Amino acid sequence: NWAPSCGECFYCLNDRPGLCATYVKPIWAGTMLDGTTRLSKGGQPVYHFSALACFADHAVVPEQCCVPLSKDVPPAVAALIGCAVTTGVGAALNTVRVRPGSSVAVFGAGGVGLSIIMGAKLAGAGRIIAVDKSAAKLKMSLDFGATDALMADGETNDRIRALTEGRGADYVFEAVGIPAVQEQCLDAARPGGTVVLAGIAPMGSGTNLPGAVLTRQEKTVTGTYYGSANTARDFPLYAELYLRGKLDLDRLISKTFRLEQINEAYAEMLSGETARGVVVW
Prior knowledge:
2 domains, about 35% helix, Rossmann fold, six-stranded parallel beta sheet
């Protein structure tokens, strides 16, 4: 869990531990929760990613980041639950609580987008439309529960409306982090629909969301951070759903890499053709 919570601040006490105010500063500063680092090189501090670490076979982590899971869950699968799966499944189940029978469009069919699709399927969505520029990812989206797969182009939103009786989708999820795609998602949502921004756009970037459209069509735009998760509750839940065959997390792992293959792993990620790659020891 890379978003530890104190259990005592306003947000934690209101079941929003992902927004914990106590640990924001050390997480962004790259330190442990006490403001120190446990790593150094040449006498200089080496900072921690999200109070954890990267590319190491051992790491010192805060107790608040630790969530026990069943030993039946493979470490590679647990790694996915620790980030992409919780972000995506939680966006559908926690952030907006997708209604049974509703229509869902997901822009971006990577690890987070495919997890959103699985979450929407668990919620009982009637139509789940995947949108991506990769034919390989669109094919994967159908395996994870999408009912329709659309190649992203200038006519995407018209095709979404054609699949939803001319209205647009009830819920539109953006899992890319590109402002232009976020704007496209607003147009893809029906009047009264909801747009959920799961992708993280570059810091300082802006998204043009026309106020007149939001007002006159009563559309809702919301963000989702870490799937609005309570990790002490949700990690074991998603692990149990995996063990019961309700979350196909084995298939989400497109390829595994050894640490010495880390540059190859990044190249695969940047190619956009994999769902999730995992570094194993």
